[in-house]
Amino acid sequence: MAMTGVLRPGHAQIRVLDIDESIAWYTDVMGLVPMGRDAQGRAYFKTRQERDHHSIVLRQADRAGLDFFGFKVRDAQTLQALEAKLIAYGVKTERIAAGDMPGTGERVRFRIPTGHHIELYADKQHVGNATGCVNPEVDVIDGPGICPIRMDHCLIYGGDIDGSRAIFEDVLGFNLVERVKLEDGVTDLATWLTCSAKAHDIAMVRHGEDDKLHHVSFQLASWEQVLRAADIMSRNRVSIDIGPTRHGITTGTTIYFFDPSGNRLETFCGGYDHYPDMEPITWTFDEVGAGIFYHDRKLNPAFLEVVT
Amino acid sequence: MAMTGVLRPGHAQIRVLDIDESIAWYTDVMGLVPMGRDAQGRAYFKTRQERDHHSIVLRQADRAGLDFFGFKVRDAQTLQALEAKLIAYGVKTERIAAGDMPGTGERVRFRIPTGHHIELYADKQHVGNATGCVNPEVDVIDGPGICPIRMDHCLIYGGDIDGSRAIFEDVLGFNLVERVKLEDGVTDLATWLTCSAKAHDIAMVRHGEDDKLHHVSFQLASWEQVLRAADIMSRNRVSIDIGPTRHGITTGTTIYFFDPSGNRLETFCGGYDHYPDMEPITWTFDEVGAGIFYHDRKLNPAFLEVVT
Amino acid sequence: MAMTGVLRPGHAQIRVLDIDESIAWYTDVMGLVPMGRDAQGRAYFKTRQERDHHSIVLRQADRAGLDFFGFKVRDAQTLQALEAKLIAYGVKTERIAAGDMPGTGERVRFRIPTGHHIELYADKQHVGNATGCVNPEVDVIDGPGICPIRMDHCLIYGGDIDGSRAIFEDVLGFNLVERVKLEDGVTDLATWLTCSAKAHDIAMVRHGEDDKLHHVSFQLASWEQVLRAADIMSRNRVSIDIGPTRHGITTGTTIYFFDPSGNRLETFCGGYDHYPDMEPITWTFDEVGAGIFYHDRKLNPAFLEVVT
Amino acid sequence: MAMTGVLRPGHAQIRVLDIDESIAWYTDVMGLVPMGRDAQGRAYFKTRQERDHHSIVLRQADRAGLDFFGFKVRDAQTLQALEAKLIAYGVKTERIAAGDMPGTGERVRFRIPTGHHIELYADKQHVGNATGCVNPEVDVIDGPGICPIRMDHCLIYGGDIDGSRAIFEDVLGFNLVERVKLEDGVTDLATWLTCSAKAHDIAMVRHGEDDKLHHVSFQLASWEQVLRAADIMSRNRVSIDIGPTRHGITTGTTIYFFDPSGNRLETFCGGYDHYPDMEPITWTFDEVGAGIFYHDRKLNPAFLEVVT
Could you tell me the CATH number of the domain that includes residue D14? Predict the structure, then answer.
């Protein structure tokens, strides 16, 4: 009753240029657990602490980017109800058959006005995490690789972020947590939304081109784990975009970096709890620099322009 | 739609033996923000980051303990609906008038089988936090005092924890996150419940006497803040029960300590996200020591026996 | 017998453009303890944990930079002996009278080949630190300001770093800890030297102009304190040069930033113990980027060019 | 000139009851690097970051404890000079032949008044550390095991700690950093000494029985590494004596725990720099509890009584 509807981000299908190189990299550098490949050649991964079958799907393609981003909903009944609401709202949905992804039930897929494909699903195989459900030991994060806690959220770029936000808020029950205003003080440059009590489950930035990915983000346990991640990136010659630093928006600490195909990823820690009765935080355009990267407080062109 | 019903713990009214000494202590040592007193002499406090008027209420009395623990619900309609569900379930409710607590709307109070008084309310004045909702700076935790992020949860002791849990689960929509079994492998010694995606919003331990408080808990941002809290406690000659250490249950790091009246409080960091589709974690009785305090793995009699 | 000769960096006299603004900044933002001004108008500061009268001296001037950098030696006899060695080595020394700086005994001043003025002294008033020498409490770092542990080292720029290094090594008994080679694989671009078992007490970079300051550095207790320092800098609109990040050289974590006059300062944490029997670490020119800033591994022109 | 004489603790030979079990434990749980065994069956270990051949030596015996503790001195000439000073002071010395320990030169062994055997040596094979001396990467501490930075110091128990201290101070040039007084305010209960600028290289407690070991200590990089060490201990069912907590003495954070033979070890982080011109810190007997364990401030009988 308290947590209903859409629960959490469940999977991101990412396009990579060389699947074998990428499998090695997501395993050895990111420290994700490989969960096998399917008949189409897609590769599946989860973190050590995630309990469902997978959260990251890699698909080989001739350009990088995000195929789709999926959210787990509470149950089959919720899936049915949300699909009905989407259709009533005028959103065209399609059903992807159970088993298209290993261990995953039927998915409802739809396109949002920014051009991205979003999925909802109710069932994914509970494979369990590294520590189990009976007398679990504490998981010591000892690699190999970064070993994030969970795939946490994504930031997408596209034109009509008002339209996309409306679907998340009005149909799917997400709440607005933070927003950045353009110079006019009215138009949103960017918005951060949650379906739970996190600082963000999805975020979007207004952009000239639709269906673009800014980053997929993974949660870490501490600022010291952020440092460890940066050290592992350097040892592995990962291209770091920026960080370790802190966002003003959400107050999370962060590193942005690129996978071998040029997809931007984030490892972050922190943020705060946001409940639906709370007023969203607003950043005016003159302070967007501090909002994005709190320490240097400068507008960062790469943040606004480089996407896949 | 995603976060509905009961949102979060909202206030704990704690009995103290000397209100003036306690006001000084909760201000200077805990680092809470004093929010004034009411006509009954009760003293109100919030953390720097909490946005509602208060989360801790102190009332002078001749014995320590917890008067009641309140949860904020999403809106007035939800309050109405939950009260109706409680009544339908056979729980007797009473309405406390708006204004009985400063800045607080009408509250629905009821007694659960373990003898504790629980409240639900939909409205409390948004006074805002230390950093505001427009271009907020990062809050540097520089005291004076511990300055926790939020009042986070409580652990209560009483006889019929099955009955109390049933109300939280069946009526209020909480979910079971972890449990400890007694020697028989069937009866619960203790349960941890959430109304959101936290590791716990309330917990309860089976105990010979009803209406007892084990602790009220405050969240800290990091393990280093746990150390800082312990240092502040020592400088201020606060009686530390145990810690810094780590719980196996929730994996949070922790210090238990006592306010000047002997009420046990906790400052903790960590825990993990729990969603309603996840299987609860079970601790068998032979591993309860590791569950409660992970590092020494020994059953701790004081944890099970000392309550107010 | 084990720690003899030169003990540690003791003071840096820094030129500032506006002494009043600088006093406020070093007090409120850096969190140094103001120790008064002298008849010449110079302002004195120490950290909370330093026990001697001062470590930072500010002098108003029309250009920023470093007047001199002083080291404390073990005793008056050592001062005498080191002066004799300097003279024997061909270095011209001068004696600055006791009392020229408050609480400070006679100083031996000399110029090194890179044009910098270095001082040695044996006596400075022990004013004690924030926690005292009897049953000290732990010092909780709660500001106001950054509150570093100690003034730790400086990095100077000039032409003949071989000549300056020779004096530190051959006369003053410093040891080489790390070095960066130029493209020829022979010439040193930079060297890090210690008079104790730290990773650096002074460092020098080869540069076209003599008597230049790259930075004066202050030690912090943890990577989390580095984050707190960055947050304080942002709140106070301090110009951050780079960081938080990590050096490959020394492995310390770091922020470079500027005081209101444009003098670069550093807050850092970490490094490793270096003893005189250990082989120095060498960085080849192709890896100098990773040596200076480990995470992005890129040669940073500002690091090599911006000095006062 | 600055670091002369005795440089640092170099090795501890520890008696264990079952050498094979102990080799596995020091490798897998402590995360030390095994460096082989000698003809006598002794097993050698170093940390990943130590550069000399070994720092821990295990010898199978029928009771636990410390055979001897060795310090590295600057060079052969220093060894000669210190031996001469010891003899002149009335201390009987013996020379252990080069090669008695693998990779180790001649050692000067002597007995101090508390009954312990102390060694000095000038040469031990430089085998290098995990990251090398040319363009070193940062060492990511990813186990297996605790992986401390270095063997750091030991605490010994015996009767005549004044006599032992006199040898360290008067002959070997150590400096007194902290001391605890007995009720009489005159007699030392315990003293902490350094041969460098660390908070301690050796410490001693007055005790009824001679030649006893309280603990051998290993340095960790951060308070978060202390937590990781405690988690690793719990997972491996290591008996933890106390911690994580903080000492008042030195202000270091700490865990005391036992190896499989009952030898107490410590993993610690922190402490402060002590130079020979600094006044030692004194703890009066009524505050010894806070001195030893700062958070609970209680005199801990096990700390004072359990030794091997």
Answer: 3.10.180.10
User: Nearest Cβ partner of B223 from A174, A222, A270?
Assistant: A222
DSSP, collapsed to helix, strand or coil, labels residue C166 as helix
Chains near D, with 3+ CB pairs < 8 A?
A, B, C
Selection from A100, A148, A144, A141 nearest residue A124 by Cα:
A100
pLDDT digits (tens, 9 = 90+) for D30-43: 999 999 999 999 99
Residue ranges making up the domain that contains C221:
150-305
Residue B303 tokens read as 């944890």
First to last CA, chain D: 38
Q: Does one domain contain both D93 and D44?
A: yes
Same domain, A168 and A244: yes
| A274 is an active site residue | no
Number of structural domains found in chain C: 2
Residue C2 in this model has a pLDDT that exceeds 70:
no
Residues shown for chain C: 308
Distance CA C10, CA C71 (A): 5
Per CB-CB distance under 8 Å, the chain D contacts of B240 are: 295-296
Q: Where does a domain end: B71, B101, B121?
A: B121
Who among A137, A143, A232 is closest to D235 (CB)? Answer: A137
Which residue spans within chain C are E strands per DSSP? 6-16, 33-37, 43-46, 56-60, 65-73, 93-96, 107-111, 117-121, 150-158, 175-181, 188-194, 202-206, 212-219, 240-246, 253-258, 264-269, 281-283
pLDDT in tens, B259-295: 999 999 999 999 999 999 999 999 999 999 999 999 9
Question: CA D237, CA B308: separation in Å to the nearest integer?
Answer: 33
CA distance C157 to chain D (A): 22
Q: Are residues B102 and B163 in the same domain?
A: no
- Does B143 lie at the interface with C, CB-CB under 8 angstroms? yes
Q: Say if A25 falls within a structural domain.
A: yes
Q: Are residues B105 and B191 in the same domain?
A: no
Residues C223 and C274 in one domain: yes
Distance CA(A54)–CA(A35), nearest Å, equals 7
Residue D25, φ and ψ in degrees, nearest 5:
-70, -45
Angstrom distances, CA of residue C250 to CA of A226, C269, C270, C272, D161: 19, 10, 8, 7, 37
Residue A129 lies in a domain: no
Query: In residues, how long is chain A?
Result: 308
**pLDDT tens, residue by residue, B168-196:** 999 999 999 999 999 999 999 999 999 99
B214 token code pair: 């084990």
User: What is the ipTM for the molecules in this complex?
Assistant: 0.96
